[in-house]
Amino acid sequence: MSAADSRTENLGAAVSTAEQTTAAQAGAVTPTFDSLDPASGDVVGTHPVFSAAQVDETVARARAAAQWWGALSFEERGERLKQWRGVIARRMAQLADISHLETGKPTSDAQLEIVMMLDHLAWAAGNARKVLGRKKVRTGVMAADLGASVEYLPLGVIGVIGPWNFPVFTPMGSIAYALAAGNAVVFKPSEFTPGVGKWLVDAFAQVVPEHPVLQLVTGLGETGAALCRSGVDKIAFTGSTNTGKKVMAACAETLTPVLIEAGGKDVLLVDADADLDAAAEAAVWGGLSNAGQACIGTERVYVHEHVYDEFVAKLTDLAKNLRAGDDPEAQIGPMTMPSQPRVVADHITDALSRGARALVGGLGAVGERLVQPTVLVDVPEDSIAMTEETFGPTLAVNKVRDMDEAVTLANNSRYGLGAAVFAKQRGQELARRIRSGMTGVNLVYLFAALPDLPFGGVGDSGFGRIHGPDGLKEFTYAKSIAHRRLPPLLALTTFARTAKIDKLMATLTVLRHG
Q1: Which of 177, 199, 276, 460 is least crowded, fewest Cβ atoms below 10 Å from its Cβ?
Q2: Measuring CA to CA, which residue among 256, 263, 213 is closest to residue 235?
Q3: Region annotation Disordered: residue ranges (predicted)?
């Protein structure tokens, strides 16, 4: 299984008997599956497997709830979302602990994820009217007798299929904006982090008890496929590129539109005039935090030859002092998916067999649950460590003669999600030349924390946007209204139109456009 395939559930995968008790075996008992602590393998929680019929019933309830929620004013919805935000903030430690148990990430990182999410929730609620509310539209000289307006109305019911690597921040980038726009939401969290999803939905129900505006469906691949086919008005999916294609295929059966936030092979460029200490620190955080399990995590680094040796020395000094473990002192947690260490090992093995060198870590850094940091240099551009998403705590660092070469190599990828440039003089110029949905200049990751900025990719990284005004509009449709405000200056849309009017229309057209 590739790194991309393993990021989220396979919509077509069969449910194993070890994970699910079938109805035939258990009679009327609802099938269940367990979420596990990736550090120990211990059971964290047991959750129901929703059947296709149960998913359909959930969506039907959401359809009725959407009518009520969508009829509320922006201010009324905003007040409810503010209350939800308060519940999450006050109980943040509890949510962070569940995230730590299900993902293995350090509790401090889980808390940081929640803090960033709360800013987005506040922005979506506070800006929905400004972005989506009714606005007058200019009609122009030829239609001066008409008036027009446009507003953005909720689609109805949004299905959100979330990932496990950032189980709070990432799905809430869709959920919060969809709710603020007036939609009901059915949330299918990853089978690796159902407890996080349940916590968020239960917290929302405390402040919106009247109707099931935000509901949870849990399960494995079949549950996600059922949500795609359930007749929701849009699916927002975050996961691998391969699974994203399956989501699109399932949604095509009902002509359901999709938002796809898929994989990445993010790049970091270091120019000759860069602050090398800051660049090395950013590369380490971008590539190794969350055990490298981030779609916007840094995986490729291209460094100007004039500063390459100095940068690599600083980078390796930082990386070799980081440690993956399941104890409170460890900066990096275990790999969330049991299959992922093998993917990382395959990428390292392929790179080394093609002439790359491991300055930190290497094949011996890959354990059964823990993967220690690895820094590779002189990595061939056609190795899978440079072409496929690794999704582990590795960095591939190569020397370039100049930034033009760096940009060319950066863009030589089927992915295009995030990127970073460290430079003093040419940062903005280089950032604009990189084919990616987001690029940071002298920073990594932080574009995701800015609520005003849209987040999404191009190419195999997906399409559509969450966050910012684009993220609100993603869950709406434009409603245009034109009305007559004056008697017509020229009666054009009538069979009573005369030759005189046609001649006048032609004359005015030549004057305006000829």
Answers
A1: 276
A2: 256
A3: 1-23
